[in-house]
Amino acid sequence: MEMDHLIKLIETVSRSGLSRFEYEESGIRVHMEKPESVQVSTVQAPAEAVTEMEEKAEDQVVTCPLVGIFYAAPEEGAEPFVKVGDTVKKGQTLAIVEAMKLMNEIESEYDGVVTEVLAENGKAVEFGQPLFKIK
Q1: Which of 20, 48, 96, 98 could form a disulfide with 71 if both were Cys (CB 3.0 to 4.6 A apart)?
Q2: What percent of the chain has pLDDT over 90?
């Protein structure tokens, strides 16, 4: 299977409504799985309860979308993209995961503050593995 074919396959499955996909060609087997989406409902609360709810808010977890090697910085010796205590915006780059010689930026799915970095720089990470906690 050629790299271009594999990339097109990944992009097509990512855009689809599929949550799981398996494909085999010439002895090469590809298995992809997406986590279930989380549905959020809006509840209006009295103004005095908002501060209390924010204090009790659970950390949101950013998980790894693929198998690869986790890099906290854009290059060796550089400052990490983010560290504990940094404020991040949705879409901001948190790290890079190298997979099959391709560098994949891991972006924040949330606005908030990084409370924990759960992966170690230069180490292998798995699909669905928690990488960051953001509050």
Answers
A1: 96
A2: 43
pLDDT tens track for 89-114: 999 999 999 988 889 999 999 999 99
Task: Name the residue range of residue 90's domain.
Answer: 54-135
Cα 34 to Cα 21: distance, rounded to the nearest angstrom: 9
Q: Kindly provide the b/e burial profile for residues 75-113, where b requires at least 16 CB atoms within 10 angstroms of the residue's own CB.
A: eeeeeebbeeeeebeeeeebbbbebeeeeeebbbbbebe
- 3-state DSSP assignment of residue 94: strand
Query: Does pTM top 0.85 for this prediction?
Result: no
Q: Is residue 108 part of a domain?
A: yes
CB 98 within 8 A of CB 68: yes
User: Any idea what the Cα angle at residue 66 is, between residues 60 and 71, rounded to 5°?
Assistant: 75
